[in-house]
Amino acid sequence: MAKLRKCQQHPDYRGVGTPSANCNACAGLWYANQVSFDQMDSVLDDNFDLKDFMLKYQGSDKVIGRPIRLNKVRLELKKGKDYAQLMFFGDMHLGYPECRVEKALEYLGWARRHGVYVVGMGDYLECGTTTSIGDSIYHQRLNPDKQAEVMTELFRPLADAGLLIGIHSGNHEDRIQKMTSIDLTKRMARDLKVPYLGAACWNMLSVGKQKYSMYTWHGKSGARFKHTKMKAAMDPVAWLSADIIAMGHVHSIGAEPCFRQVVDFRNKQVKEEKCHVFITGSYISWDKSYAQGAGLPITAIGSPTAKLFANTHNIAGSV
């Protein structure tokens, strides 16, 4: 095994575990020294305990390059408004013949011009392969590598403006990871210098004096109709308590409030909590698509948005 490099400022750090104190050299060393667990004995002290290491860093948001557990973001108010606005963008399927690229550019451009924050919900790329369902490998207009390059550049103006708060991976990007171990979404996030949210992630959004909890995930569902798709997005309300839950994957746009009653022990009363649930749309036209061939309903093109208010704890969803 090749001798590992060292960081001059932190000579004791050897590329395994959390990089030292936001040090770029240590972070680069961590990337360069990706070693399997069976090789660790050659780079770690004799008293290293793998179990202790896993417990210590499990779910850590500081291990650069891995999906984070809690994405903490402060959203600035729109000019002249008392709220910040967030758009859920995903399921573009760049490369698919029926992808409405011009419509996606319209939404991304609108967000950039109006200071609207964006969270990427996955399936930006078609990524047709020999083992994937359907025949898109023979019809996609760009190969997966080029799809990732183009999508990165489409996201870049938002990332440079600080408006892209993170990107999820989707099952279409996962096709490449399953075949090659290469995570295209993680590479896009690294290039754009935005958080990589993995398949699902908690978000803590600060708007003025208000704080909002948000759980976003690409999702998984075989639902055919809008109400059953919305049910799939609402199901996590049974085990997650959040102000916003947003799910992609199902290629429909929707925004619905979900209420539940809880006991307020402090004030000794029953109160209602509201969760805003979103299904986050797509950019595939129905004509000549797999949806038409499968007899699926026609769905609207685009992305939903949420307004998060600064002076009161209030959310307004829009499709």
Would you mind describing this structure in some detail?
The chain is an alpha/beta fold and 319 residues long. It folds into two domains: 1-58, no CATH class; 77-318, Purple Acid Phosphatase, chain A, domain 2. Helix content is 26%, strand content 24%. The chain has nine helices and twelve strands. It has a six-stranded mixed beta sheet with strand order 1-6-7-8-10-9, with helices on one face. Strands 5-4-3-2-11-12 form a six-stranded mixed beta sheet. β11 and β12 form a beta hairpin. α3 packs parallel to α5 (144-160) and α5 (144-160) runs parallel beside α7. It starts with 23 loop residues before the first helix and ends with a strand. The model is unreliable at 34-43 (pLDDT under 50).
Give the key terms.
319 residues, alpha/beta, six-stranded mixed beta sheet, 26% helix, globular
- How many H/I helical runs? 9
How many structural units, i.e. domains?
A: 2
Estimate what percentage of residues fall within beta strands.
Answer: 15-25%
Net shape: globular
Order of helices and strands: HHEEHEHHEHHEEEHEEEHEE
In CATH's first tier, which class of the largest domain applies? Alpha Beta
Distance between the termini: 55 Å
| CATH architectural category of the largest domain | 4-Layer Sandwich
CATH topology of the largest domain, by name, is: Purple Acid Phosphatase, chain A, domain 2
Q: Total strand count, please?
A: 12
Question: What can be said about the biggest beta sheet?
Answer: 6 strands, mixed
- Radius of gyration in whole Å, from Cα? 21 Å
Low-confidence stretches: 34-43
| Mean of all residue-level pLDDT scores | 87
